[in-house]
Amino acid sequence: MRMAKVSDQEILYGLMSVFRSKGYDGASLNELAEATGLKKASLYHRFPGGKKEMTDAVLDFMEAWINEKVYKVLSNAELPPQQRLKDALHNIGEVYGHGTKVCLYRSLSMDTGMSLFGNKIEQGIGQWLESFSIMGEAVGKDSETAMQLAKQSFIEVQGSLVLSKAMGNTEPFAETLQNIERRYTA
């Protein structure tokens, strides 16, 4: 009997879930294979470069996601700024499981992960900051204030994820998204 085919997206989500929870150093090949629904040999066939190649693929996937679901949304001048912000914050809520999932960048910025993937992490965070800076300027902030708001938004989302995890309650994350929306629309 032939096994069901696992889509690339399913594989990347599976890998991402392990890297989010274990980081780079803590993720074992067994856990990565189990999370993707593939056998270890099949996983290595898809990613001959091993765990590093898997992580690179997940980071590329995350960068593309941020570009599509945050950057393009926040910079879409065809929509009113309030709608762009609402849509982007909804997407951010989705990628973080509304406060139940830790940030991939945070997990990979520990130990070996930062030395191997620091440039990609920096690029992803830079894309986030640029996106929210565009939003700040769209609502009338000067470029310096817009960048400060962007940085504060990133810091608050990350902090709220840690707090939500520690408390076993997603309310801090939900409140943070609401506060960001209020800050930009006030």
UniProtKB/TrEMBL annotation:
Keywords: DNA-binding, Transcription, Transcription regulation. The keyword DNA-binding applies. Residues 5-65 form the HTH tetR-type domain. Residues 28-47 bind DNA. PROSITE patterns: HTH_TETR_2. The keyword Nucleotide-binding does not apply. It comes from the Bacteria. This is TetR/AcrR family transcriptional regulator. It comes from Flagellimonas algicola.
